Amino acid sequence: MTMLAPHRRVLLMRRLTHLAARLRGWVRGSEVAVVGLAVLIGIAVGVLAWGMGAAAHGLQRLLYGLEPHLRLSAATRLPTWQLLLVPTLGGLALAGLNRIIARWRPRSPVDPIEANALRGGRLSLTDGVVVGAQTVVSNGVGASVGLEAGYAQMGGGLASRLGRAFSLRRGDLRILVGAGTAGAIGAAFNAPLTGAFYAFELVIGTYSIAALFPVVASAVSAVLVARLLQAGTYVVETTAPGVVDPVYYPLALLVGALSGLAGIALMRGVGTTESLLTRAIPSPTLRLGLGGLAVGGLALISPVALSAGHGALHTAFMTEAPAWPVLALLLVKAMASIISLGSGFRGGLFFASLLIGALGGKLFAGVLAMISPPGPDPLILTIVGMSAFGAAVIGAPLSMTFLALETTGSLAVAGPVLAAVAVSGLIVRRLFGYSFATWRFHLRGEAIRSAHDIGWVNDLTVGSLMRREVPMAPATLDLAAFRLRFPLGAVSRVVVTGEGGRYAGIVSVAEAHAAPPEGGLEGLLQMTDRVLLPSMNARIAMSAFEAAEAEAMAVVDGPGRRVIGLLTEAHLLRRYGEEVEKRRREESGIASG
Description:
mainly alpha
């Protein structure tokens, strides 16, 4: 028996390996299996949303002495020393955590939008743990940031890890990452449609039938799990009239325009503040400490400055207030969000933008009431402002429309909301061109404006497309010898090299045979100052061909200008077209042949 045991173990391992391979093959080839994976991801993300929300709220209860059901942004009786000390020490604690993380994992985490745009959906689950911990600490100590960034990072990371375990194709992996974030946002706001369209608009970058089923499956399953666990996430509940007067449509358009402009100001404010603080205070630890102190100082004016603002948003929906106090709350929350993110706290601007937008809509209604009493219904404009400003900052107009619909249950309000988010999104798109997430990428030097898959373009490099066997000749070769070495019909063009093997130009074989016999190669050289580098992607190479008006270009190794290959425009365009068609088929759900 002991002699057979190792043999049996080997057979068992072979069988398990074979079964695992068959399972991966079935999942890769089955749309139903991908939907099943999305359901599993949604269940896991629902549990994670519950855990992260409970951890952040538990930290707030511990540090601020809150009652179990009281939200920090609605706590009005906190002592001054606590408001100043907790965010300050919390910032220093986050700086210590960041230092530990930097030693263990020095590179910056990859966002789900960036992963889907540049990396074909390849996202690290470890990055999700890092961002999740940072957002829980930031939100828990009272910084004006939300947990939704951590939710989305964990959901996307979990989906990517599971998808790679089953060796999913690039297109399916990107969809699964979108499904993970759909579940995360759906569970965060108790709103499956909001989560699904957040994934379509921001993480996948397009809507397709192939993506619909896994995204919706993940969003619904995550919301059901969060409800079952009574997660206490960012549930926004209010009521709205069943009928809305047509006069609210022009008001909604105006609120949308103002929200778009204000959203641009907020996003630029975050970037400018971060840049100024980085130059003025080089120490990240000191920046976080002072940022926490500043947020605590703003909380002395109103607790609306603290945390994401869940309690404050509920109060904004349920209470009436004159215009000027609402303006003060709006400015306090905007400044707290700008300072929190600019000083280095980690988290999202999703929920803060909803609160700022709701206060903006309420302020607009209050101003109209001062001009012409009694004015419009402030609740309707509060909902419109919430959605329009959220669309301006987050960059997901349909997601914001469905959030208003799921929040109110009123189809009548959805009409003005849709008009407002359309105007808001258009203004931001035309005047600014970025959402908050893509603006942050822009500040880091990444050329990303959406999650649309451009990573394959970067993978399609000149180095991978060029032909390495290049006919070459030295510049000292006379014309007669050149004709003997390269007869008509053998090759169409020859790369000429000068001293030290440096690139000198390209000679057309047909022109060389038609030239006077007494001439040399120097007079026949073309493209002497136009070359390609192996690191250039396909789009840059196509621009270079267009500028040079050439059919072929040499590829050199860099400063040394040593020739390493040759690329023709025809081959580049053919390969680029093949890849475009492949991505189109993936996005439309057509299986590749």
